[in-house]
Design brief:
Layout (H helix, E strand, L loop, with lengths): L2 H27 L2 H27 L14 H29 L7 H29 L2 H30 L4 H28 L6 H14 L3 E12 L2 E10 L5 H18 L4 E8 L9 E2 L2
Parallel strand pairs: 2-3
Antiparallel strand pairs: 1-2, 1-4
Organism: Paracoccus fistulariae
Keywords: Membrane, Transmembrane, Transmembrane helix, Transport
Membrane topology: Multi-pass membrane protein
Amino acid sequence: MSVTIRIAIGSIFVGLIVLALKTLAWWLTGSVALLSDAMESTVNVATAIAALIAIRVAAKPADHGHPYGHHKAEFFSAVLEGVMIIIAALLILRESYHGFMEPQLPDAPLPGLLINAAAGGLNALWCGLLLRQGRRLKSPALVADGRHLLADVITSGGVLLGLVLAIATGWAILDPLLAAIVALNILWSGWKLMVASLSGLMDEAVPESSLTAIRDTISDHATGAIEVHDLRTRHAGSVTFIDFHLVVDGQTTVEHAHQICDRIEAALKSRLPEAQITIHVEPEDMAKHSGVLVLD
């Protein structure tokens, strides 16, 4: 079992524990704001399950029907998570509206607040692990889950602070107001997540810093070639796809051209171990001499 899958399974168990704690906090207090926090945790559990399924699918090797692999499955998971976050936000807004109509101060505030704080602390620890490991493993599903939890941690902290103020001041209207603020924050988080995931599904190129590193690596290890042009990149999950045209002297043997390609591929893979590289070799009369990476 891979590290990514183990972390995804851990997210489900952590999500269930946090959901149980937040539901208990809401049950003790009757707070609409704490109910909104608990409702977001139901999304956490559902999306953690979706992330696990997507990661397992993405890990499948390429086959006849999917010759480029199944890496984009993680992007679908992240899009689904964004949709579910938005749905949760709309449900929370509905509850906050009813709270505005009949505002009430929470019951048994101290036990409920302490339990909710414990749930938020657990979420914060797991969020940090997801973001670190997701970036290290280049897993969009884990990173998306971590960003969602980060939004949850921030809003949970705001809810707790606001409820303390509501209890201290006696302003019952603060409870549904906090729920509405939480919903709007979740709505924005879900939208950003969907936009980021859709860029991967649309075969967006790697960031400019990564592209520069790829260009430099090719230039440093393409001794014997003339130029590189039509360099294209895209990413899908942990895999970076790189393809380009390599121009060599017309008298270069197939064996020598192949050696140059092997050297470039080895250098790129040392920087991007999961990279899939395609090189098209061309004779010198195909050189473009403009807008290309010219090699010594």
